[in-house]
Amino acid sequence: MDASLSNDDGLVDAAFLEKVLRGRLSEAEARTFAAAGAEIIAFTMLALTQRVAGQQAAGPNTPSAAVPPYAKPTASPRKGQRRRGGQKGHPGVTRPPLPEPDRRRELQLDCCPECQGKLQRTGDTRTRRSEDIPDGLKPVITEDILHRDYCPTCKKRVEPKPPDVLPNCTLGNRTLVLSAVLHYLQGLTISQIVDTFNFHLRMKVTPGGLMQMWHRLATLLFAWYVQIQAECLDSARLNADETGWRVQGKTHWLWCFAGPDATFYMIDRSRGSPALQKFFTKAFEGVLITDFWSPYDAIVCADKQKCWPHLLRDMANVDEKHAGDKVWQSFARRVISVYREAKKLHAAKATTVAVDYDIAAMRLESRLATIAGEAWNHPDAARLAKRLAKYGDQLLTFLWHDDIPSDNNHGERQIRPAVMIRKNSYGNHSDRGMLTQSVLMTIFRTLKLRNQQPLETILEALANYAKTGKIPPLPQKAE
């Protein structure tokens, strides 16, 4: 009997039963099972009968929660699926050692905690450190006495500006920036932030007051927003992606443009070229990495790389419906073969002679062109062959560059936090809120990419603004 039909627990394989029940058993697996022997067939049929009877007893419309966990089928991992937790070969991440303590205390027992007997002192000690939030979190109310002096030259009164609070604000900059970080970076809703400050921190804030302060913060930091856009346009590679967004209940689109150390978000009514023209204010001289969304075709850039996983996922969906079709199998097998060989070639670039590498890369491009040029009588194969004919020269761009990936994973990872924020907050209620959302999400995400502390970095910039009237340039990546 084939090893796939048995396991260490007995004669019946749960994965084999799942394939039978879900109608995914192949002809080859059925023939292998038929030759497995009478005993294995008998036990498998009995187990299958019990499973079918259990499903009928539960009923077709029984909610999943109504079925006890022990009665649910064991989920078999998909082929190629990563296991949970740390991955093999990846460095572990642990909490760094705590710095020097702010206070010290000595703890010593008066008697034995077990028998209450008298202890004999040994002089032996052990040291440990812990970190906690101080007890009694209470807002600090500051009263500034501003000396208003007269300038004979300007012929007017002048006064200093407080370094840690914006004009006409009763909440300090730390509260302002922290609340904005919670909303635009961590994704907390406004009501959750108000509850946190009012109940836990005992500082009274209102939703409208917070929103007005965030608008002012976005206005002050708008120069950073423009700077991030310029840095993205000057980068060697740029990932782009888009997703739906709601503004005043109407459908808009959130665009994400991600460079190696900068992420730019833009919310716009359009999902097409008008929105892209607002971002690409000049020709992009790097490599643009995207999916197959057609508006990206009009972007002028040095080169383009299309996302292989998007193509492979589309093929996987077709494969679930037409796995037995020989024409489709031939198409899928040939395309996947090109992808696998391209990945191997790219991985071995450093150890391959340049001429041999170039010849191998051109052969792979020729194979893709051949697949795209053939007449496929399967509808999905014909549809994807058209895609290969249109974008075939953009699928293997990564072979000609050392730092260009074959996927758009970086763009998808950078847009995912914004998607989580959208699920919590349901979009924006005004155009001004839409702009503030774009500006602050962009700045916070970029600072995080650059290993900068958003809270301290922005507080320092606001202190500089209070002193000079100008916001300093956005800091670069911290080592």
From TrEMBL:
Pfam families: DDE_Tnp_IS66. It comes from Lignipirellula cremea. Residues 57-104 are annotated as: Disordered. Residues 171-434 form the Transposase IS66 central domain. InterPro entries: Transposase-related, Transposase_IS66_central. This is Transposase IS66 family protein. PANTHER family: BLL1576 PROTEIN, PTHR33678:SF2.
